[in-house]
C-alpha cells in the first residue's frame, strides 16, 4: 500500500543547506494559480512572484507600472497553487525606495494578505534602511543586484552591468552588505560570469543568477520566456525548453476550424 508522504517545504534554511552541500537551486517565476501548481509539482525550489508580471501578464514595457495591490493578487494566486516551493514576492517600484516605513508596510501587506514566505528588493546600500526595517519585523528578504529592471530609466539600457571595475566593486560591496544585514539570498542579474563566481564564492548565502553564468548557486528564468510563450524576447542567457506560443496557437486554430466546420461538438460531446 502506497503511503502519501508529507511534502517537505523548501525554506530559507533549506536553501542555505543546499548552498553548503553544493546543490544548485532552481527558481522560476509564477504569477497565477495554474502555472504555479504545475512548476511546483515539477519540483522547482523557489517560485518568484516577479514584478515581471508587469511585462508578461499585463503587457507593459517596463516593470514600473505594477502596483502593490496587483502584486498581492498575483502572489496570493500563486500561494494557493504551491505545496513545496518557497514563494518570494517582488516589492514593486515605489513601495520601498526612500521610505523605510513604507517599505515595512508594503512587506507586511504582502506577507499577511498573500501568505507568501519572503520578499525581494532591488538595490544595495541605497535601500539599507528599508531592508533593516523589514528584517526587524521577521520578514525574510532576498536581495537583487546587477541589472535592476526598476532602475531602467537610470541605466537607459538593458545591457550587461558591472563590466567596468568601479561598478563591479560596488556590486561586491553591496552583496557583502546585504549578507551582513541578514538577507537570505541575492539574485544577480546580467553581469559577467567571472564576477558572479567571485561573489558566490565570497559569500555564505546563496547567489541566484539570471544571465550571470554557471557559477551561481542557483538559476532563475521567467517561466513564460523558458516555455517559449513570449516570442519577442531572446537574450543570450535564455534557454527555451518548449515552444508553447506555436503549440497554443495551433491548438486554437484547430479548435476554430472544428467550430467553423461544425465538427465540434460531435455526438459524444453533447447531452
Task: Give the helix/strand layout.
Layout: H1 12-21, E1 25-29, H2 33-42, E2 46-49, H3 53-56, H4 68-79, E3 86-90, H5 100-114, E4 118-120, H6 128-136, E5 141-146, H7 152-155, H8 165-181, E6 185-189, H9 193-202, E7 207-210, E8 218-221, H10 223-226, H11 244-260
Parallel strand pairs: 1-2, 1-8, 2-3, 3-4, 4-5, 5-6, 6-7, 7-8
Describe the structure.
It is a single chain. This protein has 271 residues and is an alpha/beta fold. The chain has 2 domains: 12-240, TIM Barrel (Alpha-Beta Barrel), CATH 3.20.20; 244-271. Helix content is 41%, strand content 13%. It is built from 11 helices and 8 strands. It has helices at 12-21, 33-42, 53-56, 68-79, 100-114, 128-136, 152-155, 165-181, 193-202, 223-226, 244-260; strands at residues 25-29, 46-49, 86-90, 118-120, 141-146, 185-189, 207-210, 218-221. An 8-stranded parallel beta barrel has the order 1-2-3-4-5-6-7-8, surrounded by 7 helices. Strand 1 (25-29), helix 2 (33-42) and strand 2 (46-49) form a beta-alpha-beta unit. Helix 4 runs parallel beside helix 5 (100-114) and helix 8 (165-181) packs parallel to helix 9. It is globular. The mean pLDDT is 96.
Amino acid at each position: 500500500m502506497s503511503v502519501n508522504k508529507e511534502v517537505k517545504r523548501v525554506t530559507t534554511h533549506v536553501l542555505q543547506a543546499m548552498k553548503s552541500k553544493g546543490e544548485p537551486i532552481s527558481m522560476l517565476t509564477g504569477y497565477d494559480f495554474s502555472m504555479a501548481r504545475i512548476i511546483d509539482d515539477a519540483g522547482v525550489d523557489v517560485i518568484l512572484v516577479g514584478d515581471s508580471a508587469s511585462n508578461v501578464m499585463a503587457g507593459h514595457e517596463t516593470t514600473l507600472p505594477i502596483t502593490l495591490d496587483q502584486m498581492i493578487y498575483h502572489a496570493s494566486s500563486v500561494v494557493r497553487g504551491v505545496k513545496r516551493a518557497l514563494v518570494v514576492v517582488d516589492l514593486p517600484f515605489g513601495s520601498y525606495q526612500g521610505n523605510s516605513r513604507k517599505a515595512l508596510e508594503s512587506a507586511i501587506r504582502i506577507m499577511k494578505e498573500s501568505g507568501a514566505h519572503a520578499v525581494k528588493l532591488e538595490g544595495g546600500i541605497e535601500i539599507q534602511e528599508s531592508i533593516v526595517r523589514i528584517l526587524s519585523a521577521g520578514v525574510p528578504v532576498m536581495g537583487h543586484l546587477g541589472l535592476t529592471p526598476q532602475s531602467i530609466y537610470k541605466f537607459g539600457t538593458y545591457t550587461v552591468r558591472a563590466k567596468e571595475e568601479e561598478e563591479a566593486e560596488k556590486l561586491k560591496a553591496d552583496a557583502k552588505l546585504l549578507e551582513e544585514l541578514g538577507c537570505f539570498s541575492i539574485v544577480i542579474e546580467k553581469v559577467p560570469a567571472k564576477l558572479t563566481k567571485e561573489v558566490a564564492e565570497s559569500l555564505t548565502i546563496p547567489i541566484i543568477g539570471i544571465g550571470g553564468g554557471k557559477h551561481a548557486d542557483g538559476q532563475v528564468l521567467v517561466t513564460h520566456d523558458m516555455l517559449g510563450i513570449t516570442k519577442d524576447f531572446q537574450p543570450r542567457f535564455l534557454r527555451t525548453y518548449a515552444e508553447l506560443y506555436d503549440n497554443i496557437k495551433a491548438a486554437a486554430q484547430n479548435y476554430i476550424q472544428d467550430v467553423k466546420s461544425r465538427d465540434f461538438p460531435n455526438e459524444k460531446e453533447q447531452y
